[in-house]
Specification:
- 56% of the residues lie in helices and 0% in strands.
- By secondary structure, the protein is mainly α.
- It has a domain of 45 residues.
- The longest helix has 15 residues.
């Protein structure tokens, strides 16, 4: 998702990591596991922290974590609807980051937040 958001091709990401685009495809599809050092390299190439890749981790994966199996810890459900993966969201974010003037971008952000609190504009 992040690569797509940046408008970066699989070839470009592969080149930044010293990989082929086929290797990038395998990582994206989940066919190959990603080691810690490769995850770090991916985060740097995509301009995010490593924690970015764990933000929307599935309940199934969380439940299989040794920490949860040993202590049976139940965390609150912090997930939101899958609106982050929608084409509309990606288009909106791309358009937002094409606004180069920081003041205009700040005002657009304020407008979006204000509209999000108006009754009838809520996403359900």
């Amino acid at each position: 998702m992040r690569r797509s958001l940046l408008g970066m091709s699989q070839e470009a990401l592969g080149a930044a990591l010293g990989l082929t685009f086929q290797q990038v495809q395998k990582y994206e599809r989940g066919a190959n596991r990603i080691g810690a050092s490769r995850l770090y390299d991916l985060a740097r190439a995509l301009g995010v922290g490593v924690d970015f890749f764990y933000e929307e981790i599935s309940e199934e994966v969380v439940a299989s974590s040794p920490r949860h199996m040993v202590h049976a810890v139940r965390e609150p459900d912090m997930r939101q609807p899958d609106m982050l993966g929608s084409r509309e969201t990606l288009d909106l974010v791309r358009a937002y980051y094409r606004i180069y003037d920081p003041e205009v971008r700040r005002r657009v952000h304020q407008l979006a937040k204000a509209l999000g609190t108006v009754p009838g504009f809520l996403v359900e």
